[in-house]
Design brief:
alpha/beta, 10-stranded mixed beta sheet, 4-stranded mixed beta sheet, binds guanosine-5'-diphosphate, binds 6-O-phosphoryl inosine monophosphate, binds magnesium ion
């Protein structure tokens, strides 16, 4: 059986930290979708590491980390990421496997991402500009290039064919190519392809299914969050992959009946980077304070994250879509010191109370309705057990547990591995 760990909000819920924390229970951690748009931060003994494409089990020497077929890989970014790990003593060559079916992000995919965003003007998505959407478009358009293609004699020919098509699209956009030094980008890309030839490539669908049959324990690690899912998120302000549990099946070649536990992660409040609806957003000093206290700046792009109160309507929707069996709350320490904490439990739209996510969340007439809770002053970052937590906070957790109808199993009280409280058994 395979357990899945994923984000229930708009990304950056703390997936990297939690995946690293629970990895000792697993033999394989496998990323199933997304690409280097993800930024998963791990903190080990006060040292912070950000992973973009590599699964978050990489710091555990006995864990295989698989980049699954549903992921899109930028060879240049992956090479950079790998080379930062060797000085830390990580044996990447031994523990990192690449799916032959994972698609490659080409330099021109990144340019197309920029061109597409420019063309959208004020309606831009706020993409990470990592080439994610153009590479998934080529995948579904049946003209992408995959990791396994790099072993074929036709690789360069395929590359040139795709590049020529991209160049005509860029001309269509009126994109100024002169500023981008494409030749240099391509040289770096081919150098990175050569570098990656030394890494293990697998038929990941066989690898993962055979590993499962042999009794190995597997954790599927999601990227982004459920509200950024291409089908069920706040479309079009979403990413280009299925971020929900179903994505673990398609992105790894796993039959649905092999999915066991689904761990859903959410922050004690809520954030979003980029454009798109965010009903419980706080555009005031409280929002600013959350951003400051929570260091809410993107791990990938450094952009300030939008902040707001927790949105239970969206969370319940995400729990339903994912079949979540356990939830883990992160960043609760950030809320210490607030006199009042709020949770949006319904929306008001055109005089009607909504308890579900409507088709058009972007509707400006939609207002969040809140329940209010007493805050707490106590610093949570040194808490080790549930009994160390202040009563107002444990009451807030019980409320969430009751509303969401899923056990709150882990409460994270700081970025470090050690700042993690197991509240209820989750295995
Ligand atoms: P991910 O994309 O879901 O892995 O999340 P990110 O790494 O992008 O963002 C989460 C940020 O919060 C990172 O800087 C983490 O180090 C940090 N973090 C994770 N859990 C906690 C927590 O419980 N408390 C605090 N204060 N920070 C946390
Ligand atoms: P992790 O895995 C937060 C957002 C972007 C943008 C939209 C589309 O760290 O949680 P894309 O580059 O995918 O075309 O951008 O999705 N986005 C994320 N937001 N965390 C992420 O990943 C994200 N990956 C993409 O900001 O709004
Ligand atoms: Mg992140």
């Amino acid at each position: 059986m395979v357990d899945v760990l994923l984000g229930l909000q708009w990304g950056d819920e703390g997936k990297g930290k939690i995946a690293d924390f629970i990895t000792p229970h697993y033999d394989i951690v496998a990323r199933f979708q997304g690409g280097p748009n993800a930024g998963h931060s791990l903190e080990i003994n006060g040292m912070k590491h950000v992973l973009n494409t590599i699964p978050s089990g990489i710091f555990h020497p006995n864990c295989i980390n698989l980049i699954g077929s549903g992921v899109v890989i930028d060879p240049v970014k992956l090479k950079d990421e790998i080379s930062k790990l060797y000085p830390l003593g990580v044996d990447v060559k031994k523990n990192l496997f690449l799916s032959k079916r994972a698609h490659l992000i080409l330099p021109t995919h990144r340019l197309l991402d920029a061109a597409s965003e420019q063309s959208k003007g004020k309606n831009k998505i706020g993409s990470t500009l990592r080439g994610i959407s153009p590479s998934y478009q080529d995948k579904t358009g049946r003209s992408g290039i995959r990791v396994g293609d790099m072993n074929l004699a036709t690789f360069k020919y395929k590359y040139d064919e795709v590049k020529q098509r991209h160049l005509s699209l860029l001309r269509f956009y009126g994109f100024d190519l002169t500023a981008s030094n494409l030749q240099q980008l391509e040289d770096d890309w081919f150098a990175a392809i050569d570098y990656l030839r030394d890494y293990v490539q697998v038929d990941s669908e066989y690898y993962i299914n055979e590993a499962m049959v042999s009794g190995m324990k597997i954790l599927a690690e999601g990227a982004q969050g459920s509200m950024l899912d291409i089908d069920f998120g706040t479309y079009p302000f979403v990413t280009s992959s299925n971020t929900i549990t179903a994505g673990a099946c398609t992105g790894l070649g796993l039959a649905p009946r092999h999915i066991n536990r689904v761990y859903g992660i959410f922050k004690a409040y809520c954030t979003r980077v980029g454009g798109g609806p965010f009903p419980s957003e706080l555009i005031d000093e409280t929002g600013e304070l959350i951003r400051k206290k929570g260091h809410e700046f993107g791990a990938t792009t450094g952009r300030p994250r939008r902040t707001g109160w927790i949105d239970l309507v969206a969370l319940k929707y995400a729990i339903m879509l994912n079949g979540v069996t356990h939830v883990f709350i992160t960043k609760s320490d950030v809320l210490s010191g607030f006199t009042e904490i709020k949770a949006c439990d319904r929306y008001l739209s055109h005089g009607e109370i909504l308890s579900g996510v409507p088709f058009e969340l972007n509707d400006e007439s939609l207002t969040p309705l809140y329940k209010s809770f007493k805050g707490w002053d106590k610093d949570l970052t040194t808490a080790k057990h549930e009994c160390d937590l202040p009563l107002n906070f444990t009451e807030y957790i019980s409320y969430l547990e009751n509303e969401l109808a899923v056990p709150v199993s882990i409460v994270s009280v700081g970025p470090d591995r050690d700042q993690t409280i197991i509240r209820k058994e989750f295995r």
